[in-house]
Amino acid sequence: MSETGDTADGTAEGEDGRSYRGVLGTFPYAFRQSRSRLFRAYAIVGGLAAVLVTIAFILAVIVIIGATADTTATLALSRSFVVFLGILVVVPILAPVLFVARRHRRKTGDDVRYDRRLAATGFLFLASLYLGLIPTVPAEHQSEVDGMFGPVITFLYELPATVGLAFPILAAVLIYVVHRQSR
């Protein structure tokens, strides 16, 4: 084992002697190592969200391949664009867990506040995905919303669809900024 905590085959080894391999092993490792309940909740919710979003994008690619099977290269480019969008959505969902696992693996800090901050930004990113989808709902599918959130939803419906991109982009940048500022 090297000084950085890596074993001979290049995998990371935690303080409990168990190593994790890749993204799938990172979630249980980070869950075990963190003392923050908020982060542990995010590890579960974020992991499930990442799986569901990945499945949704895989199904979208399958549908697009079926629809563009006998077409030009321009339509084939749309397949790559959907994969690219999927990566842009899934990576920020995974980022808080990856950052926390890396921090615990390298033993650069055991600050519960860091874990909480990243979990909070992860939850904020998930909420921003939902908020970002609302302006993209076509007018014929918009429904009248009553209650406490009615005016907010109505306001979001009235925004241009491109504004919906700003919410997740800003939340993803915030994840990185919080990580950098909290180190």
TrEMBL record:
Residues 18-182 form the DUF8056 domain. Keywords: Membrane, Transmembrane, Transmembrane helix. InterPro entries: DUF8056. The chain crosses the membrane at residues 41-69, 81-101, 122-139, 159-178. Coiled coil: none annotated. This is DUF8056 domain-containing protein.
